[in-house]
Amino acid sequence: MSDTPEHDMLRDLDAVLDAERDALLGGELEMIEGLVQRKSELVERLTGLPRLPDGAIVPLQQKMRRNQVLLDSALDGIRAVAIRMAELRSLRRSLETYDRNGRRQSLSTPQESTVERRA
Questions:
Q1: How high is the mean pLDDT in each 10-residue block of the chain (119 residues)?
Q2: What are the Cα distances from residue 43, in Å, to 21, 49, 60, 106?
């Protein structure tokens, strides 16, 4: 690619998309926000250009789709963890079992066990 502003932006966007993929695969979710912001800025600047080099945008679109799939998977994983943590908190409050007739029973568990210390 030559060193025109358009090519520089395309190269920058390509690098951001690669960094975003690496962060998603590496579980470095704290980096995602900055990368998404930078990606949005570059896409906005590129859409304001009158013309881009032929075929230059196709590989970037493919990378964006790939990253979106990874991001969706990461969000699904985060949601699954949140649901599991809520289930575990619920288990600490009560335990649900079934009696011999197949009816659900809820057994309460003590909230906090405290030990009294005496001198």
A1: 78 96 94 94 88 85 96 94 89 79 80 66
A2: 17, 10, 10, 54
